[in-house]
Design goal:
Largest sheet: 9 strands, mixed
Number of domains: 3
CATH topology of the largest domain: Rossmann fold
Helix content: 40-55%
Number of helices: 15
CATH architecture of the largest domain: 3-Layer(aba) Sandwich
Number of strands: 14
Oligomer: single chain
Radius of gyration: 26 Å
Distance between the termini: 46 Å
Structural class: alpha/beta
Order of helices and strands: HHHHHEEEHEHEHEHEHEHEHEEHEHHEE
Length: 426
Amino acid sequence: MALPSMPYPALPFAPPASQPLSEAEAACAAALASLPGMTPVRLTKILGGGSPVEAWTALRAGEHIADPDHRFCGAARRSCPDRVLSACREHGIAVLVHGRAGYPTALLGDPGAPAVLFALGDPSVTQGRDGVAVVGTRSATPYGCQVASELGRDLAGAGIVVISGLARGIDGAAHAGAVRAAPGAAPAAVVGTGLDVVYPTENRALWDALGTTGVIFSESPLGTGPRPRVFPARNRIIAGLARVVVVVESHRSGGALTTAEAAARRGITVCAVPGSVRSPASRGTNGLLVDGCVPVRDVDDVLVAVALAGRGRDMPAPLPRSGSLVAARGPVSRRRRTAGGRAVPETARERAASVVSAADAKVSAADAKVSAAVDAKVLAAVDDVPTSIETVLTRTGLRLPDVACACERLVDSGVLRSGDGWWART
């Protein structure tokens, strides 16, 4: 997939800080984010890793280097930070600033990390736990909603923080499943509206549940309604919070694919749930699978992806088969002969079939060489006594699926014997 450049200026990386925001800093940070015309990019430049109080004071005085045209000076003079913070407190909303206590550690160092986040609920639910984003189309099919709900429930039950956008369709189904998993990890959401504006309204009960048992994040200030351009921007935060992104259903274009792109930009594993080739709601997900994203059949596939991502290993991409790479195009150039010796133009289908056959033969030969090398490496890593899969992975540096397949081949050939989670030489 084509990955556009990241438009957000980088914030300086800061390790988890123990110093909480003072009331004045929280008030000024909230007031800065609430100024008319303020965008995430401008806010990042204005804060610049410094104190929110200093940034507010300079902006209000017309002396901030990031506001040379005094664009925000007048609005800042008319605003009262204490009143902005008081409104947040009335709605139970916390103000989080990058690099300070309470800010999600998963976003520290992220190229698109928001300088200021508003949080409804308990922001700490994302700390110290793996997160999986489950995203998809708003126009979901019953199949997609069922899969998303089951993934949300099973992931939360396995202690994984389910992250999504609280939108209708796949997002809401995933969060509904996570909420039903009790006991389980609390879910997290990232929305595009202010945290006092429930959108869509039919998700109000789900919104209240996440605000009570989990957390809802937004970089939009209070009173911000749904605006189309905000939702693609919030998707970078969903991706940044996650160790793995799972796209359940997506049309040929849509917000779920922007989340997948944001994840790919960050080196985050992207998975996709296969769907019917006749379903428009699965065109995007099936396209991701063709591009080499990890297929997901159930929660176990996601948990394997999370485990490998935690070890710094990538999931294997499917080997591109020539059938998906070769197309008959252009004029027919090859000819075949009839019994009478007359040259007959080779059809496009025949030409494609011959090219595919030759390419498949080359791929098979290459596969055999790769498999032999992997088998030798795995065999050298296995002892005469039972050897665990973790030991083989550590010794070889190979990926889990490669090791598992190699062990199967070696057992079939009689070189290894297997037990419950171990292998040994015969």
